[in-house]
Amino acid sequence: MGTFFSSSIGKKFVMSLSGLFLVIFLLVHLSINALLLVPDGGEMFNNAAHFMALPLIKYGLQPVLFVGFIVHIFYATMLTSINNKARGSVKYAGGNNTKDVMWASKNMYVLGITVAAFMAVHLCDYWVPLQITGNVESTTLHGTEMHDTYALVNAAFSQCWRVALYVVGALGLSLHLTHGFWSAFQTLGASNSLWRKRWTVIGTIFAWVVGVSFSLIAILQHFFYQA
Amino acid sequence: MEKTINLTLKVWRQANATAKGAFESYEVKNISTDSSFLEMLDILNEQLINENKEPVAFDHDCREGICGMCSLYVNGRPHGPDDEVTTCQLHMRKFKDGETITIEPWRSAGFPVIKDLIVNRNAFDSIIAAGGYVSVGTGGVPDGNAMPIPKVDADEAMDAASCIGCGACVAACKNGSAMLFVSAKVSQLALLPQGKVEAARRAKNMVAKMDELGFGNCTNTGACEVECPKGVSIANIARLNREYLKAKCLD
Ligand code: SF4
Ligand code: FES
Question: Would the pTM count as exceeding 0.90?
Answer without folding.
Answer: yes
